[in-house]
């Protein structure tokens, strides 16, 4: 998992509440045998004018010019600014997979659906909960080229005008994200112990290590 | 201090590290891989730029999606084909041994493991599949895992686990002729329920378990998961050791002697204390038939379909009613009056050579009943198929009207082309009778191989343990 320390990111606004995981990645894409490659299908029904199917080549599909992520000024956005209850609905981990694959590193919203919130941390995405009033301010301030600095270490967001906004994050999750540690990475911190175990075990049961 | 259970011993032997919260990092000796639960795990490795910790501890085989006829023509369904091809590609890329569809060693992952000596006594064995409990029959700690854990094992050869509680199920006495391991385990599930083993590792013991062959022991442990336990165990004895002698991946030479000495310790100490003990008298067990949509909804073949009105627990009563409706059965109907449309002999529960022999004895010289539209015999592996053909079992089945197929999961879960049509009723030697498990709208009755074969011949269930049928099963 990619570590998250500090980003200075272009912000894309998605001014909708209750964006569900089916909207984030529609169900036909769950047939996939893959975990990567969902980025082109992120928000598929909103982004394109035709019906998406797994493994489609998206380069020549008719795009919806009104959808925010299709606007040239938001190309390369790594921060999604949105409204309450983001990520509700099905528990599919394909939703954070798609957001991450598309390029989003962090999401700001007044609230997130529980399972989605958890899934973000497993996939290197920082979900930030801010007061609805502050989220409103950010939406109002947002003009072309609007960027925010997000510092996970100090738990602060800095706006272009220099305003500092603090945010909360669970210490354990923060630790994992700062260090880019997924469960596997955490286990690999015990790599020496695993090797030592194997060496000792190989003496008792050499046939397991032949 | 009291002695240790087999589970305690296996657990302690595999702890790499223990956290403050009591969770432990457990070393995994054998990881089995199949096509359905592995693609995203391999993809995860690829994305993170990781390699398998120990390639040689992994063994892969495609089983769920493979066709059981016309293998040379490949897989017709593109989604199934892609999953199987993906497994092949992933194994090639990550250097993992795979038995592909054309390999004589291919078969159901839980049949292949012990057959090859890939799963051995004293090991920890995992697979992205709940019936991994099967391998506990050889005194191994074996349990199913999810896709993220598959990735974790590939990358670290370890899993983070919390220890379960100890349960002992003791089956003493002698079973009557015609009663098999399948009947014993169905009777156990009928007694403790499908949630009875939740939070426990179940050790099966007692003289009736000792009297079982390794094949029979695998049938029992296979269904530990149906009793709610992630793992089932049987202590090592001479039967276990003889089974593993000379298997392709069994230890050789001096290693074998070392292994033998070590494996002989793999049983619970006489003074070990279990959190829960359940006892069963083997002599009381009759051939079992499930009548509902959960393995715990089971009765003896000489009984009749139970009446929900007799059930005092309201929740249970409702689920019984729903089950009867789905199964289209009336309370009071004799089990032996239930007529069948199809018969399936196979699955990781009952597709080993002993199972096929037991079914063949019943089918020999007989013909399928007119109402049986299809009776499938699907061996658990290519090697079992070969062995059965060497013994002439295939001819017995074919002459009786059964279809003799290639190995795989087949109609156990109907991910390939073998399935029930809506409303069809099947006598099946598999392990799950859930709604739609063998095909949308299909109705499944779980039984032993001998019971399934006898039902195919009679067209309805018959008691293979009664005198009248004794000639065939003795
Ligand atoms: S035979 Fe059935 S239960 Fe066994 S692994 Fe295959 S699908 Fe699962």
From TrEMBL, chain A:
User: What GO molecular functions are on record for this protein?
Assistant: 3-isopropylmalate dehydratase activity
Q: What is its EC number?
A: 4.2.1.33
> What is a single Pfam family found in this protein's UniProt entry?
Aconitase_C
Supply the enzyme class, top level.
lyase
One GO process term, biological-process aspect: L-leucine biosynthetic process
Q: Which domain of life is it from?
A: Bacteria
The Aconitase A/isopropylmalate dehydratase small subunit swivel domain covers 1-131
**Reactions the enzyme catalyzes:** (2R,3S)-3-isopropylmalate = (2S)-2-isopropylmalate
Question: Part of which pathway?
Answer: Amino-acid biosynthesis; L-leucine biosynthesis; L-leucine from 3-methyl-2-oxobutanoate: step 2/4
InterPro entries xref list: 3-IsopropMal_deHydase_ssu, Aconitase/3IPM_dehydase_swvl, AconitaseA/IPMdHydase_ssu_swvl, IPMI_Swivel, LeuD
Which parts of the chain are coiled coil?
A: none
Keywords of the record: Amino-acid biosynthesis, Branched-chain amino acid biosynthesis, Leucine biosynthesis, Lyase
Supply one GO CC term from the record: 3-isopropylmalate dehydratase complex
User: Subunit arrangement?
Assistant: Heterodimer of LeuC and LeuD.
By sequence similarity, the record places it as follows: Belongs to the LeuD family. LeuD type 1 subfamily.
Q: What does this protein do?
A: Catalyzes the isomerization between 2-isopropylmalate and 3-isopropylmalate, via the formation of 2-isopropylmaleate.
Q: What is the recorded name of this protein?
A: 3-isopropylmalate dehydratase small subunit
TrEMBL record, chain B:
Query: Which Pfam families does this one have?
Result: Aconitase
- Enzyme Commission code: 4.2.1.33
Give binding positions for [4Fe-4S] cluster.
Answer: 348, 409, 412
- What pathway is it annotated to? Amino-acid biosynthesis; L-leucine biosynthesis; L-leucine from 3-methyl-2-oxobutanoate: step 2/4
Q: Which residues form the Aconitase/3-isopropylmalate dehydratase large subunit alpha/beta/alpha domain?
A: 8-459
Assembly with partners or alone? Heterodimer of LeuC and LeuD.
Tell me which family the UniProt entry assigns to this protein. Belongs to the aconitase/IPM isomerase family. LeuC type 1 subfamily.
Q: What is this protein called?
A: 3-isopropylmalate dehydratase large subunit
Origin organism is Methylotuvimicrobium buryatense (Methylomicrobium buryatense)
The protein's gene is named leuC
